[in-house]
Structures are given as C-alpha cells and as structure tokens.
Amino acid sequence: MLIRRWKILNREYSSKESLISVDNLMSRTFQEMKNHPLEIPMISDQEFQLLSAFVHQRLGILWESHKKDLAYTRLYRRVQNLKMKNFQEYYQYLVSEEGHLEVQVMINAVTTTKTSFFREKAQFDFLEQEFFPKLRKNYPSGKKRKVRIWSAACSTGEEAYTLALLASEGLAMDRMLEWDLKILASDINTKVLSAALLGQYPLEKIEMIPQALLKKYFHSRHSPKGLLYETKENLKSLLKFRPVNLLAESYPINARFDLIFCRNILIYFDTKTQEKVLKHLLQYLHDDGYLFLGGSEVLRELKGIQRFKNNIYQKIHESIIPTAHERY
Fold first, then answer.
1. N or C end: fewer C-beta atoms under 10 angstroms in the chain?
2. Among candidate residues 69, 96, 92, the one with its CA nearest the CA of residue 79
3. Is 320 within 8 Å of 232 (Cβ atoms)?
4. The predicted structure's pLDDT at residue 140
5. 3-class DSSP state for residue 186?
6. Which of 5, 74, 77, 136 is catalytic?
7. Run means of pLDDT, 10 residues per run, the chain, 328 residues
8. Is residue 187 among the annotated active site residues?
9. Which pLDDT score, from 0 to 100, does residue 177 have?
C-alpha cells in the first residue's frame, strides 16, 4: 500500500526527480560524513545576502539580518557533508545545473515544520460543532455530496489527519454513504511529506487525540524507536499528498475546496508575498467556503473575504477562476 502511495505522489511531482531521489540524496550525504568533519566558518554577510535572496525567491520566506545564525545552524551540516569550504561554494552549487536536486534538500533543511494534532483547537471545535452539523442538516439525503478540504502546509501530517478524522466523525461516514470526501495535503518540504505518508507517530505526538478516536483510527505497534501509533487505512484512504510550492504562479490542482487550512506559514512571508498567496488560495475556495489561518496571522483587508471568528475567514463572492475539475 505504501509503495502504491509513493507511485501516486511521484506521478504528481512536477520535477523530473522523485521525492525518493531527494530523500536518498539526503541520506547518502549524511552517511558520507565520517570521522573527519570539515570546520565550516561562520556565514559572512555577503554569503547570507546571497542565500537569503535565494530562499526568498524560491520560498517567499524573508530572512532578516538577525536570522544569520539560524541560516548557519540549518545549513552548515549540508555544507559539511558535501565537503565544501564555505557557504559561497554551497550557494554556487545551488544555482548550478548539477545542484538542482540539492535545492529541494536545502528547502527541506530551512523550512519550519512544527505542527501537532488539534493545534489551535478552537478552529477544530468550529468544524465539529458548527460546520459539519450544518452540512449534514442542509444537504438532502440520498444524493452524494462532494466535500473537499485542503491542508496547504501539512508538514508531517498531523493537521491533515486531524481534519480526516473530524470529517469522518462529523459526516458519520461509517454509517452513511452519500459523502464523497477527499482531503489534499500538501507541503513544499518533501521530507515531511514522506513522514506524513507513513502516518506514524510516537506517543507524545498523539496525546491530544481523544482515546475513542485514537482507538478507532489508529493502531499501535512496537518499533526500534519505541511505541508508534499508525493511522489506519480508513483514515489514510481519504488523503492525497502532493508537493506544492504556494509561491508558484500556478498550482497542480484543478478543484475547489470547502475548507482551506493555511496556518502558520504566512508569518514567514513579506506583505507582498502574503497577498499573492492569499489571492491565489481564494481562487481555489468555494463561495461561502472557509479559509483558516494561524493564531498569530492577521489578514489585512482583502477583497472577497471577511473574518468569521478564531482567525477563520469566509469567502463572500465569486472569484474569476477556470472551471474546476475533480483532479488533484
């Protein structure tokens, strides 16, 4: 089953190289680091300017001057493993033709991946107590209703799986067949997508999941790293994973969504990039659909959307977008 999921994901990946190739490259270079690591000098101002401009261009992430130590911490091991002398050499490798795979490895190293199940619980309470009950009430039985949800920066999958189990419960999918539910989970970081595909979490990661839901949607197993909880197929089958760069001019998605979660990512963008990404996301949101942002993300005035509550925003009029097809 996992191999089949990898094949699906690899077909969707726009690069000529697969996620597996990137992960293998990363593993190989770590193995190559033996007993004589190179001492890498602290990143210079010039090197930092080059790398921060590259990161901003590719990811939209704004590295201000005080982020120099962060850049060094996250990248020095890559420079070391590649047996390079300094960050100038690493930058030249990134922008060269032979370094095209390294760009994804760099992205995996510099992106922040913090997440958890039921993070910012008030937003999930809204789904459980208001959104799904209203959907059940207002939609006539006997007709299959499509429900589409997008976790646009899913990291290691906790958010996406939380959405899957809440939707399963909220739509009573174990008793009713009229719901056509699909959840897209995307991230630019292929390393965390690999972990999300596996859907395996240690005990400390699943503590926020109620015991009844844990028993219904997860099974436990022992591993060399200790006890792991793995999502069951009744949950995994609802999700599709795909690498997506929110900064891209177009997304490899031809669908519109009832809910879009894009939380705790906009804070890393400058104002111009935030507006670009938000306008792009709204093109994929149904009228009256909901956009969920992180608790510390304040949405400036944006045409076509209004604040609902708990950093949840609702689309209020039609956007001009191409006809959506069910393919993502």
1. N
2. 92
3. no
4. 66
5. strand
6. 74
7. 38 42 52 54 94 94 91 93 94 95 94 93 96 85 84 97 96 72 96 96 94 95 90 95 94 94 93 92 94 86 84 76 45
8. yes
9. 58
Please give the Cα distance from 153 to 157 (Å, whole number). Answer: 9
In a 13 Å sphere around the CA of 321, the CA atoms on its Cβ side amount to: 22
The residue segments making up the domain with residue 48 are 2-110
- Token readout for 241 is 């994973």
DSSP secondary structure string for all residues of 267-282: GGB-HHHHHHHHHHHH
> Looking at residue 303, what is its pLDDT?
81
Are residues 43 and 67 located together in one domain of the fold? yes
CATH number at residue 245: 3.40.50.150
Look at residue 321 and tell me if it is in a domain: no
Cα angle: 17, vertex 103, 156; to 5 degrees:
80
Domain count, the chain: 2
CATH number reported for the structural domain that contains residue 32 in this entry: 1.10.155.10
Which pLDDT value is given to residue 137? 84
Out of 78, 187, 258, 263, the active site residue is 187
* Sign for the pseudo-dihedral over CA of 148, 229, 119, 174: positive
pLDDT score of 301: 72
Q: Is 221 a residue of the active site?
A: no
